[in-house]
């Protein structure tokens, strides 16, 4: 239950902003609660409107891998802002940002900065369509790639043929060009490419899913996407907006030793500011205006203040950060799993590095069909019990929680103790 001040702020917000929030998941509706309005954040902690302290496992949905208000990042923002906040003209900082991204992601030979993950995914698909001259795009159920029309699509009746809108306002004609398959279904990929390989412009995938809860790829799944795309002249796109610099400095493609044709980045790569990017093979990226016929633009793309934050972030993501995140992640995973076992509650914990989900279903969760077996109402009660114990967990069963380098073992142990009580109380 959130505090009285937040409740009052919510009713004021609801008069002027849809649902009182600027992004739906923040409204806490899928956990049946009311959101905490945050007044400030520092390190691993958020502070509510009433001053209450929470250990934060949302981390702004991923970006805060070094913790909130990191002094070096704040300093980079302040000093950059003193030189002006936006020029709409090229800067040396944008070159340094691009060079750094290319250093971390060998599959990226050329990249373009944009302002959100949605823009990165939208543009990557547009350039894949422009490069191949084809229209059909393949995505996977339970994966989220931002809110571009052609990505808010679910499998139609003829799953291997046409998609249908997954949101009001998306034209049926737009949805038809998107094919949605089940995640980790290697057979369905083979079948689709055998039937329609020459029509497919791109396959876009979360290389570790965060948007149905954490779901890792099965062995061979990512490799199959890349090889089928190569065989049929389609473009493989890793949407690493969440996994990029999260599961490794070079994202899931570093962990898996893979090279997709295009990569979308956001969240951490932008230092927690409105900065994202897409990039990949030079011959594809040279199709982008002003070089080529694929148009993409943005007033604040490569913004100098955001770029300064990003560079301050990226230069601090060294091996010791990922070693610490792996240790804390494993500790939390063990603690949550043993709490489920102790209370004999049907659930499973799935984790890759420092992104983790506690599912209230037996599991394992390999695809959306498994994820939706979860007891989301139980998760909602558990979430409320956690919140009342000062634990700020993502307000949806179908999201990833994030650990940052500012979390301590003591934070993790307190979270485990709270989770244990919350499991018992949420029966
Ligand atoms: P943005 O447009 O929200 O910056 O990025 C879209 C996006 C693209 N790809 C992946 C894999 C993503 O996870 C996201 C955005 N993630 C959600 C959380 N699941 C952002 C939180 C929100 O929508 O408020």
Question: What does the model show?
Answer:
This protein is of the alpha/beta class and 427 residues long. It has two domains: 4-69 and 318-425, Aspartate Aminotransferase, domain 1 (Alpha-Beta Complex); 71-314, Aspartate Aminotransferase, domain 2, CATH 3.40.640.10. The protein has 14 helices and 16 strands. Helix 6 runs parallel beside helix 7 and helix 13 (376-388) crosses helix 14 (409-425). The longest helix has 24 residues, at 319-342. The protein binds ligand KE4. Ligand KE4 is lined by residues 23, 25, 61, 116-118, 121, 144-146, 206, 210-211, 239, 241-242, 266, 399.
| C-alpha end-to-end distance | 17 Å
CATH topology of the largest domain: Aspartate Aminotransferase, domain 2
CATH class of the largest domain: Alpha Beta
Protein structure class = alpha/beta
Please give the order of strands in the largest beta sheet.
4-12-11-10-9-5-8
Q: Count of helices? A: 14
Shape: globular
Classify the beta-strand content into a percent band.
Answer: 15-25%
Please compute the radius of gyration using only Cα atoms: 21 Å
Q: Give unreliable regions as ranges.
A: none
The total of beta strands comes to 16
Mean pLDDT: 96
Order of helices and strands: HEEEHHEHEEEHEHEHEHEEHHHEEHHEEH
Condensed summary:
By secondary structure, the chain is α/β, with parallel strands linked by helices. 37% of the residues lie in helices and 16% in strands.
Task: Please give the structural blueprint.
Layout: H1 4-14, E1 38-42, E2 45-48, E3 53-56, H2 71-81, H3 92-104, E4 110-114, H4 117-132, E5 136-140, E6 153-155, E7 163-165, H5 172-176, E8 178-181, H6 186-196, E9 200-205, H7 221-232, E10 235-240, H8 251-256, E11 262-265, E12 276-280, H9 282-285, H10 304-314, H11 319-342, E13 348-352, E14 355-359, H12 368-371, H13 376-388, E15 391-392, E16 401-402, H14 409-425
Parallel strand pairs: 3-15, 5-8, 5-9, 9-10, 10-11
Antiparallel strand pairs: 1-2, 2-3, 4-12, 6-7, 11-12, 13-14, 14-16
Bound molecules: ligand KE4.
């Amino acid at each position: 239950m959130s505090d009285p001040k937040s409740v009052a702020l919510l009713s004021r917000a609801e008069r002027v902003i849809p649902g009182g929030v600027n992004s739906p998941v923040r409204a806490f509706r899928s956990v049946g609660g009311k959101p905490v309005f945050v007044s400030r954040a520092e390190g691993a902690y958020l502070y509510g409107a009433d001053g209450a302290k929470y250990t934060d496992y949302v981390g702004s949905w991923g970006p805060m891998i070094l913790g909130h208000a990191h002094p070096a990042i704040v300093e980079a923002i302040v000093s950059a802002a003193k030189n002006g906040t936006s020029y709409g003209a090229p800067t040396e900082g944008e070159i340094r940002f691009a060079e750094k991204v290319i250093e971390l992601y060998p599959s990226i030979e050329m990249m373009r900065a944009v302002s959100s993950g949605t823009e990165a995914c939208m543009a990557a698909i547009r350039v894949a369509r422009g490069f191949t001259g084809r229209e059909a795009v393949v995505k996977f159920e339970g994966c989220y790639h931002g809110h571009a029309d052609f990505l808010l699509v679910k499998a139609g009746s003829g799953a291997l043929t046409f998609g249908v809108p997954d949101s009001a306002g998306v034209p049926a004609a737009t949805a038809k060009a998107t094919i949605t398959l089940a995640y980790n279904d290697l057979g369905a990929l083979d079948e689709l490419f055998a039937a329609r390989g020459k029509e497919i412009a791109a396959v876009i995938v979360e290389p570790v899913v965060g948007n149905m809860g954490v779901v890792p790829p099965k062995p061979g799944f990512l490799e199959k996407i890349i090889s089928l795309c190569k065989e049929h002249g389609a473009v493989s796109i890793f949407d690493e907006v969440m996994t990029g610099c999260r599961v490794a400095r070079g994202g899931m493609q570093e962990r898996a030793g893979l090279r997709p044709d295009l990569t979308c980045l956001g969240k951490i790569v932008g230092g927690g500011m409105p900065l994202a990017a897409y990039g990949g093979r030079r011959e594809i990226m040279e199709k982008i205006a002003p070089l080529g016929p694929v148009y993409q633009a943005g007033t604040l793309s490569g913004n100098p203040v955001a770029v300064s934050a990003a560079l301050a972030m990226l230069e601090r993501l060294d091996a010791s950060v990922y070693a610490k995140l792996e240790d804390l992640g494993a500790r939390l995973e063990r603690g949550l799993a043993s709490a489920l076992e102790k209370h004999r509650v049907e659930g499973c914990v799935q984790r890759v590095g420092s992104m983790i989900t506690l599912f209230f279903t037996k599991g394992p969760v390999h695809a959306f069909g498994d994820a939706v077996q979860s007891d989301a109402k139980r998760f909602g009660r558990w979430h409320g019990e956690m919140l009342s114990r000062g634990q700020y967990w993502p307000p949806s069963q179908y999201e990833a929680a994030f650990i940052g380098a500012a979390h301590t073992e003591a934070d993790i142990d307190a979270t485990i103790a709270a989770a244990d009580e919350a499991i018992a109380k949420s029966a």
